[in-house]
Amino acid sequence: MQLGVRTLISDATLPVAIVTAALLLILGCSMLFATRSWLALMSEYSEHPHKLLVPGMAAMVYGLIVVFEHNIWVRGWEVAITIAGWAILLKGLTFLFMPDTATLYAKFPESLTKMSLRVGGTILILLSIMLLLTFTGQT
Q: What are the domain boundaries of the chain?
């Protein structure tokens, strides 16, 4: 007998997992299809790192929600949500405490940054599809 996905995680964490998967899908599509906008945003943050404070707070809040509601370290797909939550939290904290790290983006060639955005976007899309298929019981 195979357990359904809803029996694997609590009712409290299912919404967090679904929102995380949707967020990764939207973010991945944006990185893949709006690369020029991401490059402009990265340039803006490199010139004005203080503008990372608000996105840093938003990322930190979302990361904390995931970490507190879904801190599950098991073998299986559930750990992807936990890892995403910790990564988002760490990124938010980096934006808040070390906004000058945004100036590092300016040191990379634009072609490398474009490729990184497209590869990262593709990975996020594939990860989100895997998670959403898991939630719907298609895998």
A: 11-135
Q: Which tokens sit at 50?
A: 């203080």
Q: Is the separation of the CB atoms in 31 and 38 below 8 Å?
A: yes
Taking Cα atoms as reference points, which of 96, 100, 72 lies closest to residue 86?
72
Query: Cβ–Cβ contacts within 10 Å for residue 78, how many?
Result: 19
pLDDT digits (tens, 9 = 90+) for 86-104: 999 999 999 999 998 888 8
pTM, rounded to two decimals: 0.75
Three-state DSSP state, 18: helix
What is the DSSP annotation of 33-101? H-HHHHHHHHHHHHH-GGGGHHHHHHHHHHHHHHHHH-----SSTHHHHHHHHHHHHHHHHHHHH-GGG
pLDDT per residue as tens digits for the range 50-64:
899 999 999 999 999
